[in-house]
Specification:
The chain has about 425 residues and is an all-alpha fold. The protein has 17 helices and no strands. It is globular and about 75 Å long. The N and C termini lie far apart (about 50 Å).
């Protein structure tokens, strides 16, 4: 096996995954020019605090509502046709926001432009499950996470330059044009995906409640923990850029720099963490991720408390935010491992439907807490992160105790045979 083959084997670079990685990079390079600035874009277009909160709530809600049908579509249609459909619908959303510079168009357009990121999530999971062995799932997802974050590391900086040069509205509209062009190019890439023939033709109708019933105990516990942690993330999520620009006084270009720092931190930790998680166990890595989620909002507060060092402290805060990816590939690999292979897309979709449907409330709660005081917003998020982390640690202990009891019972049965 030559060097390139060994490298490809280490990273799990099967043909379909390589095609998907290229599409993820190209589409992301366009979206990330403007996506991070949407809350500020809404603010300049005249949207109120609660409209901005509504945008973030809808973003989370659509992630929930689109996840399950996205999983059903990929199980029924196959990966190639599903990815192409999600991409084309997203392009229609970009065009709507471009042609109608009003905050209402953003709210309506997001039902379309979030299609790629929301519908395709179960499809990417099931593609990893189909292409790689179970002990390579963390690495497969890790490589996708790295490729997804490469444009996030670079594009917001150039998006910030566009905004600083042409204003928020003009800069975002130019970025949308670029996004449409790149997503159109990605269509030709996605056409190269080859769907493997299914061993058994699917005769069962998609059944959401059956998918939920098939969740085993560890998957349910992970879901509950994940919900609490995502409350910690979503409460301040829409306000981070506004906080940095309005309260700290950074420019749009500096927001791009901060995002690049975050993505670099994430990229540096994802691959080694994924490799060791596949070898030595995934739960400890998930715990580290939950801790980083919890530390981020309190890090933002600290940056505001020391004005002379505010930007340097913001850099530290965004490094912490990047390190939340340390065990996120492990969390996703655990989800894949808990799923039935023939229904992987639907079960992943059901997981994210339940999670994000509940977590969408956090965005509205975040808007309310922000209207009270930014400090209340960040402290409330931190408190929920602490609860979620402690809950997950306790569930891991319970799982180990249950596994030990099962082992003892099995040993006892063998003795009395």
């Amino acid at each position: 096996m030559n060097g390139f083959a060994r490298l490809g084997n280490f990273f799990g670079l099967k043909r379909n995954l390589v095609v998907l990685l290229i599409a993820i990079f190209v589409i992301g390079a366009g979206e990330e020019l403007w996506m991070r600035f949407v809350p500020k874009f809404l603010q300049v277009l005249g949207a109120s605090v609660f409209v901005i909160g509504l945008y973030d709530a809808l973003r989370t809600l659509l992630g929930a509502l689109y996840a399950y049908p996205g999983g059903v579509i990929v199980d029924l249609w196959g990966h190639r046709r599903a990815f192409l459909t999600f991409n084309i619908v997203s392009i229609a959303g970009y065009a709507l926001v471009l042609l109608v510079p009003h905050w209402g168009a953003v709210i309506v357009g997001m039902f379309l432009f979030l299609s790629w990121s929301c519908f395709s999530l179960p499809a990417t999971f099931s593609l990893v499950a189909a292409a790689l062995e179970a002990n390579r799932h963390s690495m497969g997802i890790g490589v996708q996470s790295v490729i997804k974050r490469l444009p996030i590391m670079v594009a917001p900086f150039f998006g910030g330059l566009l905004i600083d040069r042409f204003g928020v509205i003009g800069g975002v509209r130019i970025a949308l044009v670029i996004s449409i062009v790149l997503s159109g190019a990605a269509i030709f890439v996605q056409r190269q995906i080859r769907d493997e023939p299914k061993e058994e033709p699917g005769t069962e109708r998609p059944n959401f409640w059956q998918s939920l019933r098939e969740f085993n105990s560890p998957m349910r516990r992970l879901l509950l923990s994940d919900i609490l942690i995502r409350f910690c993330e979503r409460i301040p999520y829409a306000w981070v850029v506004i906080f940095a620009m309005d309260y700290i006084g950074v420019s749009a270009k500096q927001v791009g720099v901060l995002t690049s720092v975050e993505m670099l931190a994430a990229i540096l930790c994802i691959i080694p963490a994924s490799h060791y998680a596949d070898r030595y166990g995934r739960e400890p890595f998930v715990i580290v991720t939950f801790i980083m989620f919890t530390l981020f909002p309190i890090s933002l507060l600290i940056s505001h408390a020391f004005p002379a060092y505010s930007f340097a402290l913001l850099v530290v805060a965004f490094i912490v935010r990047g390190f939340k990816e340390f065990g996120d590939t492990s969390r996703k690999a655990l989800i894949i491992g808990y799923c039935e292979p023939a229904r992987c897309g639907q079960m992943v979709g059901a997981y994210y439907l339940v999670r994000d449907l509940i977590v969408s409330v956090a965005a509205i709660l975040g808007a309310y807490l922000w209207s009270v005081n930014p400090n209340v917003n960040f402290l409330g998020a931190t408190a929920l992160g602490i609860v979620g982390t402690i809950f997950y640690i306790r569930t891991i202990r319970e799982q180990r105790e249950e596994a030990l009891e099962d082992m003892k019972e099995e040993i006892s049965r063998r003795r009395f045979r």
